[in-house]
Specification:
single chain, mainly alpha, 3 helices, 0% strand
């Protein structure tokens, strides 16, 4: 029998696939702490930045359409390069 099959059938301790309840609990605790810290300090400001950017793009798009430039800045750039 090939050696890699023998190694796979042998019981080994400390492998990567072994279920260790204590380690699982500490991993869940560390994940929960990290999640709550990120939720409190990071997710809010990131979401606010995304919302502000979306609003700014929509305002610019509406302004360009009302000014008669449906293609916005692309028309200006295209005209300047021709």
């Amino acid at each position: 029998m090939p050696s890699f099959l023998l190694a796979a059938t042998e019981e080994s301790s400390g492998g990567l696939i072994d279920v260790v309840p204590g380690l699982m609990i500490w991993t869940l605790i560390a994940f929960a702490i990290t999640f709550f810290v990120l939720k409190k300090f990071a997710f809010g400001p990131i979401q606010k930045t995304i919302d502000d950017r979306r609003d700014r793009i929509q305002r610019r798009s509406r302004r360009d359409v009302s000014a008669g430039r449906p293609d916005g800045d692309r028309g200006c750039l295209l005209a300047s390069h021709q």
